[in-house]
Structures are given as C-alpha cells and as structure tokens.
Amino acid sequence: FLVYVPADAVASRKKMDWEFALQRMSNSGAVITTAESILFEWCEVAGTAEFKSISKLVTSR
C-alpha cells in the first residue's frame, strides 16, 4: 500500500508528539502531504468539472 498522511488533517495534544508521529510514519514509507494536495492529486487533470468543484471548496476555506 502507498499511504498518504495529510499533515494538516491529523493532530495530537502536544506538538512534539505530532511531529514525531509524522516523522515515524514518513520513516515507514508514508507520504506526508496536505489535504489540499491530496484532493488535487485525485483529480489528475485540471479543467474537469470535478477539479472545478474541488477548487471552489479549497479556495473558500
């Protein structure tokens, strides 16, 4: 499996725990990225109806 972790969508009570968890997942092969990046990667191609819908959601937040 190729695991993607949206760093801006996971949390911990302490920043240090969050940082170490992300590093540990990365060291194990996970791809640390952002929720926005994942959404646009799923679209694959710009200009589609899906891309436009997601783009509106992303820019409105």
Q: Which descriptors apply to this entry?
A:
61 residues; mainly alpha; two-stranded parallel ribbon; 2 strands; elongated
Task: Summarize the helix and strand pattern as letters.
Answer: EHEHH
Count of domains:
1
* Oligomer kind: single chain
For the report, how would you describe the main beta sheet?
2 strands, parallel
State the total count of DSSP E strands: 2
Query: Biggest sheet, strands in spatial order?
Result: 1-2
Mean pLDDT: 92
Strand content: 5-15%
- The low-confidence parts are none
Count, helices: 3
The termini sit apart by 30 Å
Task: Name the shape in a single word.
Answer: elongated
Task: Determine the structural class based on helices, strands and strand pairing.
Answer: mainly alpha
Rg:
14 Å
Helix content: 40-55%
Structure, described:
The protein has 61 residues and is mainly alpha-helical. Helix content is 54%, strand content 10%. The chain has one domain. The protein has helices at residues 15-27, 35-43, 49-59; strands at residues 4-6, 31-33. The chain has a two-stranded parallel ribbon with strand order 1-2. Strand 1, helix 1 and strand 2 (31-33) form a beta-alpha-beta unit. The chain is elongated and about 40 Å long. The model has no long low-confidence stretch (mean pLDDT 92).
Fold topology:
Layout: E1 4-6, H1 15-27, E2 31-33, H2 35-43, H3 49-59
Parallel strand pairs: 1-2
Helix pairs in contact: 2-3
